[in-house]
Amino acid sequence: MRQLAFTLLISLPFAFSACKKDSDPSKTELLTGNKKWVLTAATIDPSITLSSGGTTTNIYNQLPGCAKDDIIIFATDGKATFDEGATKCAVSDPQTESGTWAFNTDQTILSLTQNSKTTSISIKTFTSNKLNGTYQEVINGSTYTIDATYEVK
Questions:
Q1: What is the pTM of this model?
Q2: Would you say 78 and 100 are in contact if contact means Cβ atoms under 8 Å apart?
Q3: DSSP letters along 79-132, please?
Q4: Structural domain boundaries of the chain?
Q5: Sign, CA torsion 8/12/14/19
Q6: How are beta strands 71-74 and 79-83 bridged, if at all?
Q7: Alpha-carbon distance 35 to 46, whole Å?
Q8: What is the pLDDT of residues 25-78, one digit of tens each?
Q9: Would you state the CATH architecture of domain 25-152?
Q10: How far apart are CA 103 and CA 29, in angstroms?
């Protein structure tokens, strides 16, 4: 009986550690790993005036198809590849361009740099296949808030 009690006492920590929940993946792990991120939704506030008349807040619907298939690939070393996807809007555009990415200290902001321009996205929701956030854009002297959603395709 004493031997059984000793065996149970020794094996008890192993039993509980086997039930221990795995740690959640880091935001870097969620972002990287040969994932192809594609813009799937974008709104703007305040609304913009359309060339055809009227206004809209849904800027994703205004994008040409050649812009909707663009891909971003994030590497663990902080490098990013911006790919034109299957269709290019201008034949003379390069298929890919290099850039960088980084999180701020508390990983609430994702900064993307491409062609010396940095966009800092305040993260609202982030999973292994969906990233939603907002950033500011100045257009014709006015500041707009863009709410963008990217998904893994």
A1: 0.82
A2: yes
A3: EEEEE--SS-SSTTS-SEEEEEEEE-TTS-EEEEEETTEEEEEEEEEE-SSEEE
A4: 25-152
A5: positive
A6: antiparallel
A7: 32
A8: 899 999 999 899 999 999 999 999 998 899 999 999 999 999 999 999 999 999
A9: Beta Barrel (2.40)
A10: 12
